[in-house]
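So, who can interpret the following?
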Amino acid sequence: MERIDKNAKEKFMKEIEKANSEEYETEWKEGYPISKKKSEVKKGRTSRARGARFELRVRHDLESKGRIVDKWNNNVDLEEGNLIIAKRKYNPFSKVMTLGTGFPDFISIKHVHDGLYSVIGVEVKVNGVLSKIEKEKCVWYLEKGIFSEIWIAQEKKDGRKIGIEYVDFKERYME
């Protein structure tokens, strides 16, 4: 018979207590309960929805400025140092396969003159803050010349009105 660690047993019993509570949502993974506060689950859901709405606003704003915008379906494998197809995410509850989970979110193209185009990667962040890995990916894209610029689209609050502000990655992180 296998002996169970006392701390592990106490942690397991606390998770069981949370599973019985009305304020927690519990799912089982590999025979172990994982409880999340319902308020935190709701907060995550609303945050994802807010981010999706902001992403759509950014897309429409770029298109209104005369740019051609498309989802970027590639990602960077930093270990290998090459461009790969972004993995698709499947949501078993809504039976939806999510496409376009690449980094950055959009590729934006604008004709400048005589066969010369401006190709810009646009990453949409409500708060405008990139993670360490995202910064490394941006540097890789710029070094390889895949994008001439990378913009970070973030919310700009002016009183009650919420606008879109585009910040150049080089200006914010590389200087």
Q: What stands out?
A: Residues 6-173 form one domain.
